[in-house]
## 1
Amino acid sequence: MVGLSEGEKHFIRGGIAQDLRADGRRRLQFRAMSVETGVIPQANGSARVRLGSTEVIASVKAELGKPSILHPDKGKVSIFVDCSPTAAPMFEGRGSEDLSAELSVALQRCLLGGKSGAGAAIDLSSLIVVDGKVCWDLYIDGLVVSSDGNLLDALAAAIKVALSDTGIPRVNVSLSAATDEEPEVDVSDDEFLQFDTSSVPVIVTLTKVGKHYIVDATSEEESQMSSAVSVSVNRHRQICGLTKRGGAGLDASVIFDMISVAKHVSQQFMSVLDSDIAAAEEAE
Amino acid sequence: MEYVNPLTGFRVDGRRPNEMRQLKGEVGVVARADGSAMFEMGNTRVIAAVYGPREVQIKGQQVSSEEALVRCEYRMADFSTGDRRRKPKGDRRSTEISLVIRQTMEASILTHLMPRSQIDIFVQVLQADGGTRAACINAATLALADAGIPMRDIVTSCSAGYLCSTPLLDLNYIEDSAGGPDVTVGILAKMDKVTLLQMDAKLPMDTFETVMELAIEGCKAIAKYIREVLLENTKRLECQRCLRPDFVSGHFLQQTYMYRAIFVEIKAYKAAFGSED
């Protein structure tokens, strides 16, 4: 919970109206970002992203499984988010469940596409080992370690970095003559396949405070929001998913305006993220 | 399986029997907490955050009006173990470890100095490779010190075991799951008192003594390291205070006033000299 006095609330709103926010940023400016890869050695890929005081960790684990009967030509990806009580005392016990579920669903919507797997950011057919028999199950876990607003954007960025860090072991399959037998799978220990992450989108959340909207809101600013629109945009400026939060209604024209701004901002954000990924991989 | 090589006397990860894994401690890793720390023992990595002393949130939990209420929650990340498994929150193991950490830390916190208040300790395991209990207690000590909470002494913890008729210090996951005894000891470093002692499996009386002695030696080594980390942190803080006095105590509004003043100056400059950008 953010405890703010009337004066502070007024100051935050006034600053946003004048295009100069409480920490000296402009309305469409992100906080300084730092990216680290390979933070969880046990995972296939992992990343830590810091946006100001917000810190999230994403890990990708790959396990061999069986594709579902409905989609024998596609692998499975699941996303779970957990908010650690280290981030805020209110996440203690079951207190984080609502927020964790909200973030998980929003990320699933933006990254995994529809139920059929159509429009997913990750090419699900690339996870198939043997059609209808063996596939990779990707488990993407997000952990919020420190929370100072804009968790969704930070988590999406961390997942994008973690996926680009992910190496899936190469597998050799020896198919036996009998078709209904379980195929033998030999997982290689030293050969890894990289993912194509070029189509993984980033999420930009525009938070509306008063008449204006801002990117990368801190938790003080989020406490003053009327509504927020999270737009996920990929490299080709296509919109992959959209979530609106907050109670206040928005005019349709405002939403279109927000989307076009989000598209523009996301391209800058993505180029910053790409250079950060390259720097992090070099440092590793 | 051989956990200690009979020829060289080295363990599975190449350590000597009385050798600890590499320690790493860092203070102030969670920006918004009152105190926080990260502690690594080899591949085991935990984060602890302390909130408080603050007003008691749920009045019914306040046991005594003379002493502060200390609470603790232990949580493991889904990705912390080797094979990923989603566990329900508040399973029995977590509840037990939460309780152990709370009792151990409570013994060292001067609770009578902060009546009618509450101190929350949250520990989050990022990677589990044996000895999470010990690592959590060490991280909690660092975080409490970072939060400036008055303590009697530094509490440190370390585990030891007995495999292949050799006492082993600081067990990793492979050694921990070997089925031998696992002795976890927590001590008040300066007062030389044991505050935590746990053992599973059986062990002859005289061997237990040597194993426990070994664990206590480990605790003392950790206490020495933790003191170094805290001293280093204090030096850094002092240095910061000398460099930028306005930022140390500065409320965020004060900083903003400064930013805004600069902004207004730039505007005035632009107006005067007619620069476009």
## 2
Amino acid sequence: MSYITFEEVCKNYGTGEVVVHAANHVNFSIEKGELCVVEGISGSGKTTCLNLLGGMDRVTSGKILVGEKEITALTDHQLTEYRRTDVGFVFQFYNLMQNLTALENVELARQVCRNALDPRKVLEQVGLGERMNNFPAQLSGGEQQRVSIARALCKNPALLLCDEPTGALDSKTGEQVLELLTRLCHEYQTTVVIITHNTAIGPLGDKVIRLHNGSVQEIKINPNPMRVEDIKW
Amino acid sequence: MVSSHSRESQKKKFPLMKKLLRDLKGSSMQILAMVLLCFFGTFVFSGLDGTWRLMDLTINTYFDTCNLADFWVNGTSFSRQDLTSIKHIDGVKEILPRTSITVDAEGLGENVEVALEIYEGDMRINKPFLRSGSLLRKGDLHGCLVEEQFAVAHHLRIGDPITLSIAGERLRFTVKGLILSAEYTVTAKETVPDPDHYGFILLNHEAVPNLPYTTVLVQLEEGADESAVQAAIEHALPAALVVTTKTHGTVSTALGYAQMFHGMTYVFPVLAFSVAAMIVVSTIKRMIDKQRLEIGTLKQLGYHNGQIRRHYLWYALLPSVFGSIIGLFVGRYTMPDILWEMMVHNSRYPYMLRPPISPVAYGMTVLSVLLAVLICQLTLHLSLKEVPAELLRPKPPRSGTRILLERWGSLWSRLSFNTKMIFRNLMRNKGRTAILLVGIICCNMLIIATFGLQDSIEYFMRQYYGGTLTYDYRVDLKETHAGKLESYRSRLDADVLEGIMEVGISLHKGVKARACLLTIMEDQQTIWHLTADQKILTMPENGLAISRKLASLMGIEIGDSVELYLPGDSDPIRISVEAYADVNVGQGVFMNKSTWNSCRKGDFSVSALLLKNPSELTLHLINEMEETDTVKALENQFSQGMTILDATATAFSIMSGAALALSFVICYNMGLMNFTERIRDYATLKVLGYHQREIRSLMLRESGLTALLGTVLGIPPGIALVSIILKTCEFDSMVFVGHVSVIAVVISSMITFGFAVFVEWILTHKVRSIDMVEALKSVE
């Protein structure tokens, strides 16, 4: 059985006459330790799927299974526990606490997590050993994104969800971030889901899911994913 | 052509109007907060302003209608010549002699006394206010006017007979009218009216022609120099006691109340307004800041700054006009009536006159609207200065900085992670933290002031009754029958029994004069504790002790020589002041028996007995004694004293209620602002897997810290405020001592702190409603 399974997942926004089907009978699965890229143009429903997978939103109908858990059936409290222990989130705009230093932002995640890693080590791992006492405003976009990744990694999650992690970065820093993500996936067997509108990133993934208008348009399996330095933006 | 153009421009305005209404609806909590704050500011001002004006108008109108005297010249017996000499003093417009005596009203029951005011001729001065029946005609030998409450208590109606024993003669009178008197708005022998046992009756002098005049009522010419006339009367009749509206018991109390509320009108609203203004600033600033993108868009679309200004003007204008006007009217039509009722519950006034809303109150209302509009325009001005491109970019979030505390490395590193975060958050938005602090400080101040005032009143009453005066019972004796002290000592059984002699005198120092009480005590007395630390004052030999406040009012210092005029005696006692006495209630002068004897002004005749721990039998005996006038237990005197300041206490309860309401608005408003600003942070915490409970506890601890700090910082100014208020309210006869007990401080602080945390606790429920997806949507 796959690690992640979406079964007939629907998510509707709005009621009455204007209903938007953000996810419309989505079905796919992702294996453990896979790097999965979800592609799609703006409005294709990729962020919706990621939010549902991350336990930040609830489905209208359908089922999502992660490991043994049917997360669509969890209570709010259980869902929080799920986010706390199983999921790491990386956002396009980092969502760092502006009044906490890089290190403190990472510690924020450790606070609530049982099997957390040492925040300093994680920051060193993402190449920020020198800058951990800086505030977000004192860091570049790429560095902030790496703090955000470190914050997600610190929780030692089984599942790392990245929403346009390179969206706000230039190609060079974007490459560094992707490099980091692929390395994590392969070295630690973390399941990584990256959503992006940038089709250049697709070839990195073990699996590429293309969404369109809230439905799965295509699922492609890459037996030999490309390396980051080989992709062209 | 013209009309189609104007229709065109009408259409243009339409979407902005829609935007305005939707914006207002969208930030309804903040709009409501502004309405409430403007309401609060004007409510307090308009209420207090209305209160003192109502009191002032009612009291003065009543006094004017009754043609209240300016002076009561008291003596034992005024001759025709005395009257003429007063009448011819410059500045005296009119005089009216009368006789005041207290007699038993036979046939109305046991222990019923009436104060008789027997007028010579027309009752032109201190005219009674007729409630029913008719006034006395000149030469009416058998008619009398009865005070209404007393009449009601004794079921006296117009035409009923009443028998009085005057100077040993039983005389029958007929009730002609029921009246009120401006002179005696409180008809009480002690502080609290007791119409079952005490009242007053007015008679014509012809009915009892042989009685001497004991009082001359004097009315002054318009614009006459009061103190000059007083000095002239005292010069002409040195033995007379001149009582003015400032020293007359009931009259000065009534006028003092109006004065007190007048003073309060300018203390509280200043506080209320400044706090309200601060909150309005931050609220409007936030509303405008939130509209940055919109302002940028409008500018980019080509709207003129003026048009944008006009649009946003409504944001301040609508809530402030609405709140202020409601505050003006609600304040004006509720608070004065309530406070008046409280003030007069022991007094009798024939009516209550509501003055129209004063120009000052209207002025404050306009001011509060102007203030809101001004703040709005200033904030807008800053935004409008920026170019559209700048405005269309969102304001970067405030970056974090190291706070001062972090320099203290050893302490900082010991703090828990959450605590560090809380500290940084507090310092991140210093302005808001400061406003919240000020709000909580003010709240605690007002609540402490309310409790502290009650405390202080109780404290200084207790200091006097129990501290200065240490008897258990005071027995006033009827002048005529009082026996020798030694005979009482042999008859009555008590731990301590001492006698005092009290004489109303006129105290002169140079040209200054004042009616006051001379208390003559036994040489080795133990009952009066007149020093500041309430020990027995060693009375000076051949000298006088003077109460501190009276000394400062008259500019008397130790070593000064003063003159004491006894009633009916034009030869004063010349004596030097040798000591200060510390008395809180009732000011006067004191001497001991041997000093009195050396003055050669007659024997020491006991006017009151002071008893400590008397036996049951003794109490019974005292009540049976013929010469006993009244028996007062110290405890009763204490509790009666407390009721005097009921109205003030009520005023403060209203204030602290308002303070709580205000702090609710402040805490809620500030908390809400904080919440919306940090919703992204909270959403991130939620995504990271923080439970609601954990986020809420973080929020609570953060605001709890502010609340704690504000509460603590509010304590010293709260205690100071008590003293300020007491200074504003002080009467001439009393020394108010600010004394706030620890319990009052603790209770007030607990209320304030608990309240602030409670409000935040309500807010923390909003964490549940944070939609992570919505809150973390990319800034696009």
